[in-house]
Amino acid sequence: MQMYYDEDADPGQLEGATVAVLGYGSQGHAHAQNLRDSGYRVRVGLLPQSRSRAKAAADGFEVLDPAAAASGADVVMVLVPDHEQARLFHEGLGEALQPGCLLLFAHGFSIHYGTVIPPRDCDVAMVAPKAPGHMVRSCFREQIGCPALLAIHQDHTGRALPRTLAYARGLGATRAGVLHTTFREETETDLFGEQAVLCGGVSALVKAGFETLTEAGYQPELAYFECLHELKLIVDLMYQGGISLMRYSVSDTAEYGDYQSGEFLIDQGVRDRMRTILARIQDGTFAEAWIDENRSGRREFLDRRERESQHQIEEVGSRLRSRMSWIQPVAEVPVAAGERS
Q1: In 10 A of CB 91, how many CB atoms?
Q2: Which residue among the candidates 29, 31, 83, 107 is catalytic per the annotation?
């Protein structure tokens, strides 16, 4: 394991650098604002139709088309969604990169699966914060930082690592720690974590628990509290002190139920299916399916998004959360197709 902190990162490696941040969504706004606050000249690259252009301009950034923003920049961070990156490069981004620049990504998908082939005369690396953009920004402002991953794919100048560390420091990540990895390892573990645990696994488990209780005749509001609302309390404890703190903090009855039922539910069959998910990620099957879905207009993806938004747990939760002012509930979550860059 190699971890880097502030003392390992020399900001002088990017002294006077101009940084182009392509995208101004969840991650883009945080990178642009943090780097500007760290003293870098930052401009934002967005497509003409992007709904984020007005926001970036209102925040005081020069906003250009992606290729124009990248032209002449010393550092270019690509923060548009994975499925849009290949099109940017096909439409002139690769040619706009100046020789010797540092080309950065926050996720390894496009490089690892070969949808983007970067120019040979630039450094290619990754700085991937392990938090959503609003936390990257808020932690920076609180001077605590968010941890991140770092990887080097191409070291044309011989200075890819120190320059990438300087960027990570400007982002605030070296305050919390930056773990050295590879594009392959980051991509495959990130996709697996999302699909098997954090998104696919958790959302399916929550819905299954909710449906089991409501089908047995229990109130849907009660099922919501037991299977979704209280999940945050458990995750916060695990976040702060691991599984041990969670088990220490709950009742002995809950801890005993954990030992009795957890492994019965998540049995060898689940582990085998997790290995299948990982294999599909490793051999490119998942990536190919996602690329094909986008090429064909995303109809199945958008239809599923719409259907999931109509699940009973969403209706019940929205109604209950509307009375919980302390959690700042989101009144209406958009479900239509929309760009997040």
Answers
A1: 14
A2: 107
Q: What is the pTM of this model?
A: 0.93
Would you tell me how many other CB atoms lie within 10 Å of the CB of residue 47?
Answer: 19
Q: What is the pLDDT of residues 274-319, one digit of tens each?
A: 999 999 999 999 999 999 999 999 999 999 999 999 999 999 999 9
Q: Nearest Cα to 29, choosing from 154, 147, 171?
A: 171
Q: Provide φ and ψ at 215, rounded to 5°.
A: -65, -25
Residue-wise pLDDT tens digits, 144-186: 999 999 999 999 999 999 999 999 999 999 999 999 999 999 9
First to last CA, the chain: 32
Rounded mean pLDDT, 32-57: 96
45 membership: H or E segment, kind and range = strand 41-45
Q: Which residue is listed with tokens 């010393």?
A: 74
Active site residue 107: yes
Between CA 62 and CA 26 the distance in angstroms is 18
Complete DSSP assignment for 191-259? HHIIIIIITHHHHHHHHHHHHHHHHTT--HHHHHIIIIITHHHHHHHHHHHHHHHHHHHS-HHHHHHHH
Task: Give the pLDDT band of residue 329 (cuts 50, 70, 90).
Answer: confident
DSSP labels, 283-304: TTHHHHHHHHHHHTTSHHHHHH
Residue among 19, 80, 71 nearest 49 (CA): 80
Q: Which two tokens stand for residue 207?
A: 């819905």
Q: Sign of torsion, CA 301 90 32 131?
A: positive
Tokens describing residue 302:
């958008």
3-state secondary structure of 93: helix
